[in-house]
Design goal:
Layout (H helix, E strand, L loop, with lengths): L15 H27 E5 L14 E5 L2 H5 L6 E5 L16 H12 L10 E8 L4 E4 L6 E3 L2 E3 L19 E4 L4 E5 L21 E2 L3 E10 L5 E2 L16
Antiparallel strand pairs: 1-2, 2-11, 3-4, 3-11, 4-9, 5-6, 5-8, 6-7, 9-10, 11-12
Length: about 240
C-alpha cells in the first residue's frame, strides 16, 4: 500500500514585520502632525528663565500658553502674555539646526503635557498693560500708572521692595500704536521690559504678530500648579482710548 504525499504548498512571504514597520511609521507621522498642530494653533509650554515676573511666576516655572482663544477674543489688559523677541530685547544666540522628526514628535508630546519648552529662550513673558491706542503714563502722585487717564492699582500683584508703592521708578508717557501692545514685568525693579527698550526702532512696543498667546496655567513644579491670574479687575475702570 502506497501513500501519496501532499503537494508542497508555497509558503507566503512573511509580511508581518513590514506591516508592523509600516504601522509604526504611520503612527509617528500622525503623532508628529498632531503635535505640530497643537504647538502651532492650540497650546504651548514655556519655562520662566528670569525673575522679571516674580512673584506671579518664578524662575524655572513651566507654564502653558493658550494660542487659540485670543485668536477669537483678542487680549485684555492684565493678561500675562508670551511673545517672540521684537528685536533687541534678548541677546543674539546661534540658530539651532533642525531636529529629527521623532524628536520633534516627542517634544510635541512633552509640550502638550507641559514638561517641554524647547523654544523658551527665544521668547519673553510679561503682563499686558496697554492695548492699541491706550495712553499709558507713569506715574501719578500716588505712584500709580494711568491708562487713558484712569489710575490702576497694581499693588496686589507687583513685587516691590517693602514700603515702596511706586509702580515704576522709570517714568514714561506713551501711546500704544495700532497692532501693538505695551508690556511690563511684575517684578518692576528687575524687569527689562518695554521701558528698557524705548530707544529701539519698535519704541519698546510689541507687535501683536509677535504674541504667541495668553499664559493660563503653571504646570511645574508640582507645588505651584495653578491658574495664572490676569488681575483683570484692576483694569475695570480704564476707559477705551479716545479716537
Amino acid at each position: 500500500m502506497t501513500t501519496e504525499s501532499a503537494p508542497d504548498v508555497p509558503s507566503k512571504p512573511r509580511r508581518g514585520f513590514w506591516i508592523f514597520l509600516r504601522d509604526v511609521l504611520v503612527i509617528i507621522v500622525i503623532a508628529a502632525l498632531v503635535s505640530f498642530l497643537v504647538k502651532t494653533f492650540v497650546v504651548r509650554s514655556f519655562y520662566i528663565p528670569s525673575a522679571s515676573m516674580e512673584k506671579t511666576l518664578l524662575v524655572n516655572d513651566r507654564i502653558l500658553v493658550d494660542e487659540l482663544t485670543p485668536r477669537w477674543s483678542g487680549y485684555s489688559r492684565g493678561d500675562v502674555v508670551v511673545f517672540a523677541d521684537p528685536g533687541g530685547w534678548l541677546p543674539v544666540t546661534p540658530k539651532q539646526p533642525p531636529r529629527p522628526v521623532v524628536l520633534e514628535w516627542f517634544d510635541g508630546l512633552l509640550t502638550l503635557i507641559g514638561l517641554s519648552s524647547s523654544d523658551s529662550e527665544d521668547h519673553l513673558v510679561k503682563r499686558l498693560i496697554g492695548l492699541p491706542g491706550d495712553h499709558v503714563v507713569c506715574c501719578n502722585s500716588l505712584g500709580q500708572i494711568t491708562i487713558n487717564g484712569a489710575p490702576v492699582d497694581e499693588l496686589s500683584y507687583l513685587n516691590l521692595p517693602e514700603g515702596d508703592t511706586q509702580a515704576s521708578n522709570d517714568p514714561f508717557d506713551v501711546t500704544v500704536p495700532e497692532e501693538s501692545i505695551w508690556v511690563l514685568g511684575d517684578n518692576r525693579d528687575r524687569s527689562q521690559d518695554a521701558r528698557a527698550h524705548q530707544d529701539l526702532p519698535s519704541g519698546g512696543f510689541v507687535p501683536l504678530d509677535n504674541v504667541v498667546g495668553r499664559a493660563f496655567l503653571t504646570t511645574w513644579p508640582l507645588g505651584r500648579i495653578g491658574v495664572i491670574d490676569g488681575h483683570h479687575e484692576q483694569f475695570n475702570g480704564v476707559p477705551e482710548p479716545e479716537e
